[in-house]
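Propose amino acids for all 527 sites.
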């Protein structure tokens, strides 16, 4: 207490006041004033009364200035305290939405866990429901409306979260991630709160006159039921949220212990993928592309293949999707493209290389520059490369996709629209974008020789391609009869197991040699 008192900012004025009181008491006890008056009368020639008056005036002025200084110090202290309070608030809250941030969450966790540990009867401790939320499709809206529009959307989402009376505390954890806290003693039905919250967020949001629809994936966990520490319970809610996202988005998932095992498996999957990329274990395999009319080999499509240590071959759909989720798809794609271009450089100069771009890559305005950079590094002319994009990738960001395709087209790279007929493209898109070829999805080819309706669809697509001046390629040709029908219908190119399976680089070289030897043999026979 004494140490605190001695360090107080009020100590100095208190001591001065105390000293003044003591002097006054001393003077009162010893008739100091009368003594002073008598002394001054005895020495009138010294003009001590004028000096005394001057001393009194200067003393009063000094006292006034002193207490004025104390007042300024007090006001400065208050301003400093307010500034420190404002800085503390800013450090603990999100600047955009005003919601508490991760720093605030940490202090909330520490305080809650300390309180839980002090409870003699832990059943008396507060029980919280934790709702982890992650917006679905925010990047698309952010790209369409700009960062200002994205910020306004986040603020509206935050308002919808906090307007729910059951939510006692809500945090913005960064980006489009939020965490809401419910007091289960007051609101035990956590699932009902989550459903209401989800339905509220799914309502349209109007920005600059444009109606936007945002999705949300929701994960639930309870503290201390699901975890003895609050940090663990928050992680469990996060695990449940990602489980909901993988289940199809716009879903609500409640944490279950089995999800921990799934998370561990995914974590190991991610580590193995990164290790495989570092060791260059993910390789391009090549499937041949044939001119159906001439029977000539025209090129190869590069297809990513990965044999995971201890697990065997992994489906490309799985590890490509994982790379997208992890944010390493660009690195993986560049790695595969460079290897494929180097391999294609060793093929005869009239053979082309087809390479697939993911929808995420097509939303990156720099992907065209990276592709051209890889071509330069490998020494492969741009006209020998054909990039394939799916119809669905055009929906994500048409403006950026158009920019990327135009830059590649201008550089001499050819463009193919993959899986045509299964997505969202239309004639306007086909006429406005820079396509050289459309690829008919294998789902139409599989029954082209047995289903009259499918044959009519294929005929329509082929007529469309001819009308637009685009070459056509049929995917998934697995039977001679399918190939014959497509050839008769006027399809330009074909690929599938009947024509050749995907093989590694060495086997591709053997395939090329065998094809041209067979061609040379036929020429000799005909001669």
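Proposal:
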């Amino acid at each position: 207490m004494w140490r605190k008192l001695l360090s107080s900012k009020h100590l100095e004025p208190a001591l001065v006041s105390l000293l003044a009181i003591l002097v006054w008491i001393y003077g009162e006890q010893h008739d100091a004033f009368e003594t002073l008056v008598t002394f001054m009368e005895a020495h009138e020639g010294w003009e001590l009364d004028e000096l005394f008056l001057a001393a009194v005036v200067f003393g009063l002025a000094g006292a006034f200035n002193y207490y004025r200084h104390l007042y300024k110090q007090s006001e400065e202290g208050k301003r400093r305290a307010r500034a420190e309070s404002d800085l503390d608030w800013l450090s603990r809250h999100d600047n955009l939405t005003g919601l508490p941030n991760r720093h605030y969450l940490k202090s909330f966790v520490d305080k809650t866990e300390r309180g839980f540990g002090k409870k003699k009867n832990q059943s008396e401790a507060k029980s919280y429901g934790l709702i982890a939320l992650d917006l679905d499709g925010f990047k698309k809206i952010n790209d369409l409306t700009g960062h200002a529009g994205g910020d306004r959307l986040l603020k509206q989402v935050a308002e919808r979260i906090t307007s729910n009376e059951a939510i006692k505390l809500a945090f913005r954890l960064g980006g489009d991630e939020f965490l809401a806290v419910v007091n289960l003693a007051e609101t035990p039905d956590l699932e009902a709160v989550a459903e209401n919250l989800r339905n509220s967020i799914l309502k349209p949001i109007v920005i600059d006159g444009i109606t936007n629809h945002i999705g949300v994936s929701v994960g639930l966990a309870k503290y201390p039921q699901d975890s003895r520490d609050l940090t663990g319970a928050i992680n469990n809610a996060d695990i449940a949220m990602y489980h909901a996202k993988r289940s199809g988005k716009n879903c609500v998932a409640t944490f279950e212990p089995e999800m921990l095992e799934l998370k561990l498996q995914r974590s190991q999957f991610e580590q193995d993928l990164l290790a495989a990329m570092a060791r260059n274990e993910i390789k391009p395999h090549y499937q041949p592309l044939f001119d159906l009319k001439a029977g000539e080999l025209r090129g190869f499509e590069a297809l990513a293949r990965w044999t995971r240590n201890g697990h065997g071959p992994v489906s490309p759909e799985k590890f490509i999707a994982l790379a997208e989720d992890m944010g390493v798809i660009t690195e993986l794609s560049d790695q595969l493209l460079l290897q494929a271009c180097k391999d294609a450089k060793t093929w005869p100069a009239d053979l082309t290389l087809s390479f697939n771009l993911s929808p995420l890559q097509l939303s990156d305005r720099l992907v065209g520059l990276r592709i051209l950079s890889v071509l330069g590094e490998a020494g492969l002319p741009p006209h020998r490369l054909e990039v394939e994009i799916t119809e669905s990738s055009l929906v994500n960001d048409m403006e950026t996709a158009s920019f990327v395709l135009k830059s590649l087209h201008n550089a001499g790279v050819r463009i193919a629209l993959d899986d045509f007929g299964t997505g969202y493209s239309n004639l306007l898109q086909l006429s406005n974008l820079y396509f050289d070829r459309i690829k008919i999805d294998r789902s139409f080819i599989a029954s082209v020789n047995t289903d009259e309706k499918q044959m009519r669809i294929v005929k329509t697509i082929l007529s469309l391609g001819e009308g637009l001046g685009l070459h056509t390629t049929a995917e998934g040709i697995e039977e001679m009869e399918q190939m014959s029908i497509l050839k008769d219908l006027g399809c330009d190119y074909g690929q599938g197991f009947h024509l050749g399976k995907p093989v590694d680089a060495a086997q591709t070289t053997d395939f090329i040699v065998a094809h041209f030897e067979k061609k040379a043999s036929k020429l000799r026979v005909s001669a």
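The radius of gyration is 39 Å. The chain has two domains: 102-256, 272-526.
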